[in-house]
Amino acid sequence: MLNTDFDNSLSVLIFIELTYNTLTMLKKIIIFLVALVVLLLVLAIFLPSNYKVERSTTINAPVEKVFIQVADLNNYLKWNPWSQMDKEAKNTITENSQRAGATWSWEGEVVGKGSLTIVKAEKYKSIETKIIFTSPRQDEGKGFWTFEDINGTTKVTWWMEGELNYPIGRFMGLMMESMLGDNFEKGLASLKELTEEQ
């Protein structure tokens, strides 16, 4: 009888000790996670609130020929890097594909869902676009193009800029240069190849 009572008491003590240790460990984990979240929130305050990614190339073709490859959204589909990523995506382009108000909408498993609209176009000189992403995440930005005639060749500059939401967007902004920059380089290389072959 005494042994049974002693065993029961010992089991209770072991259970209490284990429970205490578990709760202590959980408390430490929670404190660590809270401290980590607070640290990340503080760090995000000091990160840039907007981004700008820019790339350029020179194409051995007259500016008129290069400009139409970008200004006409039907041509845009042939070389832009995102269309190449998801060739099964559904693409819709409005009838006025070469002037302000023209819109290209896309929906696909790889590229998600969104649209690009020409906001302003100055013939053979510049284009401004608005990009809206609705899936898998909601975001928007502005795209810009300039075209410069250099002795019969064309210097093309493409950049995108936008705001970075606090706090997650601020951290994503750290990767914008590499992610967007790589795609811009691929797109410009395709644009150069397509235009020079024609």
Q: What Rg, in angstroms, do the CA atoms define?
A: 28 Å
Structural class of the secondary elements?
A: alpha+beta
Mean pLDDT: 88
In the CATH hierarchy, the third-tier topology of the largest domain is known as: Alpha-D-Glucose-1,6-Bisphosphate, Chain A, domain 4
Strand content: 25-35%
Largest sheet: 7 strands, antiparallel
CATH class of the largest domain: Alpha Beta
- The CATH homology group name of the largest domain: START domain
Helical region count? Answer: 5
- Order of strands in the sheet with most strands: 1-7-6-5-4-3-2
In sequence order, what are the helices and strands, one letter per element? HEHHHEEEEEEH
- How helix-rich are the residues, as a percent range? 40-55%
Total domain count = 2
- The CATH architecture term of the largest domain is 2-Layer Sandwich
Spans of at least 5 consecutive residues whose pLDDT stays below 50 are none
SSE order and pairing:
Layout: H1 2-45, E1 50-59, H2 63-71, H3 73-79, H4 81-85, E2 90-93, E3 103-108, E4 112-122, E5 126-135, E6 139-150, E7 153-163, H5 168-197
Antiparallel strand pairs: 1-7, 2-3, 3-4, 4-5, 5-6, 6-7
Helix pairs in contact: 2-3
Explain what you see.
- The chain has 198 residues and is an alpha+beta fold.
- The chain folds into two domains: 1-46; 49-197, START domain (Alpha-D-Glucose-1,6-Bisphosphate, Chain A, domain 4).
- It is built from five helices and seven strands; from the N terminus they run H-E-H-H-H-E-E-E-E-E-E-H.
- The chain has helices spanning 2-45, 63-71, 73-79, 81-85, 168-197; strands at residues 50-59, 90-93, 103-108, 112-122, 126-135, 139-150, 153-163.
- Strand 5 (126-135) and strand 6 (139-150) form a beta hairpin.
- Helix 2 (63-71) packs across helix 3.
- The protein is elongated, with a radius of gyration of 28 Å.
- The model has no long low-confidence stretch (mean pLDDT 88).
